[in-house]
Amino acid sequence: MVLPAVPTPAGAYVPAVRDGDLVWTAGQIPLVGGRLVETGVVGAGISTGRAAELARMCALNALAAAAEAAGGLDAIIRIVKVVGFVASGPGFVEQPLVVNGASELLGAVFGDAGRHARSAVGVAGLPLGAPVEIELVARVAS
């Protein structure tokens, strides 16, 4: 697996901040090569399965940002928390299944150290019309 380039922020913020032994990422949307892969609402045009794939892309972007702030991917020793936001159509309740795309990727990369606390939140809309946004907190080596 190769980490993508860290996406350029779309506003007045940085992709990730290290504070002591923690790195906090900004929310990451499914950008590839600086372009949003897909727009729309999950449960109203975008399937749960496709949204989980997009969440995986978001998690890769978040890992890239965290690794840059930590001094490399090898410096990350644990994923502590993941927050997933899902642009959800009326009545859509499968946000946890969408965010599993991110959680499963982190588990594949870090094994037991990739197991984390998590929130999966349905929202009316996300930046640029993205269907999914993922942020994470990672513990890094001192």
Automatic annotation (TrEMBL):
It comes from the Bacteria. Residues 3-131 form the Endoribonuclease L-PSP/chorismate mutase-like domain. It holds the Pfam family YjgF_endoribonc. InterPro entries: Endoribo_LPSP/chorism_mut-like, RutC-like_sf. This is LysR family transcriptional regulator. It comes from Parafrankia colletiae.
